[in-house]
Write a structure and sequence with these properties.
Blueprint (H helix, E strand, L loop, with lengths): L1 H18 L21 E5 L3 E3 L5 E4 L5 H18 L12 H5 L6 E6 L14 E6 L4 E6 L2 H14 E2 L10 E3 L3 E6 L19 H5 L5
Parallel strand pairs: 3-4, 4-6
Antiparallel strand pairs: 1-9, 2-8, 5-6, 5-9, 7-8
Helix pairs in contact: 2-4
Length: 211
């Protein structure tokens, strides 16, 4: 009957999903497969890098105004919490021992040229993120704070965390050399509040602010 027909269709769909299943997260030796949206320019090579939750630090190296520093500080806090959360990008494709023998990335240095927090269609939101050297060093360069925010989000997507990782290797990046440069593809972006299916009072709508 109709019920058995639906069960057959469901079984076929499940088989198709399994046949074309692609593991989420970076593939072995590929740090770029988990990035979304894809950066304008990106390259990665080398083996793996370990990040220690106790030792890894993100710091701002530029002299900026207190409001700009505070904006970056909040973003850094979100990034550090995200990359060391067990549920974040949990699918690892090598044994824990293979990662533990990798070099350790201990810091991400951020350089921002301007502390102007004005956000308009002319704001430069580009950034350049690199990992290079021995011992490895990560650098994020941007003209504005907003470019740095985009770069931090990209960095967080490079990191994978598995339940078996701890101590010196709390998380991993599947590359030891990396170069990414990117900027928003479109200068104008908008936010739609769907008040038809999700009622919002006027006061709630007027409280919406850019983060």
């Amino acid at each position: 009957g109709a019920k058995s027909g639906l069960m057959v269709v469901f079984a076929v769909l499940c088989s198709a999903v399994q046949a074309f299943d692609v593991p989420f997260g970076p593939q072995p030796g590929d740090a770029l497969s988990g990035l979304w949206p894809a950066p304008a320019n990106a390259s990665a090579s080398g083996a793996f890098l370990c990040l220690s939750e106790a030792a890894f630090k993100v710091s701002v190296k530029s002299t900026l105004s207190p409001p700009a520093v505070e904006r970056l500080r909040r973003a850094i806090h979100r990034t550090e919490a995200k990359i060391f959360t067990p549920a974040a990008r949990p699918h690892l494709h090598q044994s824990v021992a293979a990662y533990a023998a990798s070099p350790t990335l201990t810091a991400l240095a951020i350089y921002v040229t301007s502390d102007d927090l004005t956000l308009s269609r002319r704001t430069d939101e580009s950034y350049a993120l690199s990992i290079e050297g021995a011992p490895p060093a990560a650098t994020l360069r941007a003209h504005t704070v907003y470019g740095a925010l985009h770069g931090l989000e990209t960095f967080s997507q490079l990191v994978s965390r598995g339940s078996g990782l701890r101590g010196k290797c709390s998380a991993v990046i599947n590359a030891s050399r990396l170069a990414i440069s990117d900027a928003p593809r479109f200068r104008w972006r908008g936010l739609m509040l769907d008040s038809a299916r999700h009622y919002l009072p006027v006061e709630a709508a007027t409280r919406v602010r850019l983060l």
